[in-house]
Design a protein that fits this description.
This protein is an all-alpha fold. The chain has one domain (3-133). The chain contains six helices and no strands. The radius of gyration is 16 Å and the shape is globular.
């Protein structure tokens, strides 16, 4: 399989994960605003995401996405099935009850998965991920 053929699905997955992350971030913002009041602007939101404990559960997904973007943006890098397998494995660990390192993420995800935007964006990236396994 060519690099272009392999690259198309991780590129689409990166796009879908960004939409999912945005939906999770909006949910976390809503939780924060319920407890502490409105976030005044995007600069305040950025500071909160980077520093406030209410948003720390999102960091493992943010890190995974940053790594995926770095791999996809590396000039001259030929993607292989191994790269695809690595992404699938990392996402599997993030959602696996067996891995306690990501328990905070899963707790936040459990709260957020009732949100319509979270469900919709999750369904998109999961469908794409399932098609990568076929």
């Amino acid at each position: 399989m060519t690099d272009t053929a392999i690259r198309s699905k991780p590129d689409a997955l990166a796009r879908d994960l960004k939409a999912y992350h945005k939906a999770l971030l909006n949910f976390a913002r809503g939780e924060y605003e319920f407890l502490y009041g409105p976030v005044k602007n995007e600069f305040e939101l950025y500071s909160l995401v980077m520093n406030h404990e209410s948003f720390q559960w999102l960091r493992p997904l943010s890190g995974l996405m940053a790594t995926l973007d770095d791999v996809l943006d590396t000039k001259g890098m030929q993607l292989t099935q191994r790269n695809v397998d690595d992404v699938q494995g990392a996402l599997g660990l993030l959602f696996s009850e067996a891995d306690s390192r990501f328990a905070d993420f899963r707790a936040g995800y459990t709260r957020a998965k009732g949100d319509a935007a979270v469900r919709e964006t999750e369904a998109k990236w999961r469908a794409l991920l399932n098609s990568m396994e076929a």
